[in-house]
Design goal:
By secondary structure, the protein is an alpha+beta fold. About 35% of the residues lie in helices and about 35% in strands. It has helices spanning about 15-30, 35-45, 50-55, 105-120, 135-140, and strands spanning about 5-10, 60-65, 70-80, 90-95, 125-130, 145-155, 160-165.
């Protein structure tokens, strides 16, 4: 019998290619059919290993989920960018490879990201999700998030509503 370990840790620059791979798979899985294809392809192609390496080196907080030595998910987090919301922390992104979704890893990564924000002295958390991304909205609602604000993102002239979930 083989035992696989599950670890959540801060990313280092050597993780850049693996994170880029997760980003590609997760975004194509989550947003195909929601974000226009050309816009989605452009967004994904811009965030290759060099982009991730630079983000990690410039001290962005990136956490990764590692199973048996393979990076299968990531979260990016930091200070809340929406000044009108009182929550101090924000989880900018939380993604898993599609085949690792639905087994509790997202919840573990979400909890670790919230703990990291609290460790940085940031009280309360906000997360934005596209309304049409029902997997994400169900996840954040199931985690106890309250829909407090709405906004719009435009992708190749297609306006999509986004929802802010808060966690105190």
């Amino acid at each position: 019998m083989t035992t696989l370990t599950i670890d959540i840790r801060r990313a280092d620059p050597d993780d850049a290619q693996a994170i880029a791979d997760v980003h590609h798979e997760a975004w194509m899985g989550a947003y195909s059919g929601i974000i226009p294809h050309r816009a989605l392809a452009r967004m994904v192609s811009r965030r290759g290993s060099d982009w991730w390496s630079h983000a990690i080196r410039r001290s962005a907080t990136v956490l990764v989920v590692v199973i048996g030595g393979e990076i299968v998910g990531y979260a990016t987090l930091g200070r809340n960018r929406a000044r009108e919301l009182s929550q101090q922390g924000e989880i900018y992104e939380l993604y898993l490879k599609p085949e690792y979704q639905g087994v509790g890893l997202g919840s573990r990564l979400f909890a670790a990201a919230r703990r990291k924000l609290a460790d940085h002295g940031l009280e309360g958390t906000v997360v934005w999700a596209l309304e049409e991304n029902t997997g994400a909205t169900a996840f954040y609602e199931g985690a106890g998030g309250r829909d407090i604000a709405e906004g719009v993102e435009v992708f190749d002239q297609k306006a999509l509503k986004k929802v802010a979930y808060i966690f105190d």
